[in-house]
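Z., the sequence and structure:
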Amino acid sequence: MILGVWGGLARRLLDHYDMSNPVVTRPVVRPAMITALVPRRDSYSATAKQRPHWRRPRLADDDKKRRESSPPGPGTAVITKTKPQTKRPSLYRVLILNDDYTPMEFVVHVLERFFNKDHEAATRIMLHVHHHGIGECGIYTYEVAETKVTQVMDFARKHQHPLQCVMEKK
């Protein structure tokens, strides 16, 4: 006696024998029976390459295209390199504050030396600081702005001027 899954298949085969001609008996094979006779492997015991196509995990559209374009064979692999999304760094404004003791020529010299301004632009910024109390020297990333503020403050202290330089996020 045939037991289990094969027993059910054997019974189906016997039910479909052509009995109209008792001399030659042939099984009637239908497409549904062919797929029923193909043994299926357990998806957990088979490796990914041994699994039938209906058991493989589905790929994203991009991976399908990449997979179809690459030559099949042992030892081939698809390595994807993702480019990280980088965002632009925050910018900071470097500002000079007005005081009553620092000479105008010294402020012009600081703007020319540390902020690479020409004489006309440095004079314009110095007058803006003198009239409005504050003036923008430039816009930089955090590290550069912090360095410029430190350089200006150290230079002013070295020359005994109370010039103040600050930075603020733009």
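The two ends are 86 Å apart (CA to CA). The chain has a mean pLDDT of 78.

Let me know what you think.
H.
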